[in-house]
Amino acid sequence: MRRVTGLLLLVFFMMTGMAWSMKEVKVYSTQEVYEKLKEILKKEYAPQLCSVEVTIRDKNGVIGNINLEARRACIRDLTVDFLALKVKNLVLDVKDLFDLEKIKVEKIGDVDFVVQVREEDLNQFFKKKTKKLGLENGKVVLKKGRLHLEGVTKVLGLKTAFKVEGKFVSKKNKVYFVPTVAIINGSRVTRRFLKKLASLINPVVDFSKYQIPVDRVTNIQINKGVLIVEGK
Length: 232
Prior knowledge:
This protein is an alpha+beta fold. The protein is built from five helices and 13 strands.
């Protein structure tokens, strides 16, 4: 009798466990996956204009391709004029996509990322970042291969002109501004000032916390009026 009762209990627990697991698992259509993925990508970069193309291989989270192009998007504190993201062979966790609205990457193929930043937007970025140094009326000028920053600061209570020149360098998936020369009132400033300036500004471009991973910055171009950053 005990043996039969134990067997019945085992069958009961197996059946209730199966029913519970079946109840918990929700199956989404490929269209639902497509729409949710587009929604999250648009929120991620908060663009004014955006087009997203997604090729889905199946509803279990296997994505063939993602092509995203955006205008006036945001990368942390920096506004970028143009952003393009191309992803191939992405496998993601569908449950997290809907439950947490998060792109949890389980496997990924090639990633290509390009951003273009206008001189005017870098001006706004540098103004916000240099307030703690007391720099005023800062103006960024992008020239071939270099960045020039000019403005006004206070020395011994008196306003005086300053000039900073530098370049951009990459480290993994971030872009840093490296000031090489700073002149205040006609004299070069100390390395300590340059380090302080760099610590307030950097990183200028940061891909590290985005849901579609960009492992490294591959190219930085500074042309007249525009900064171009490419990554993979």
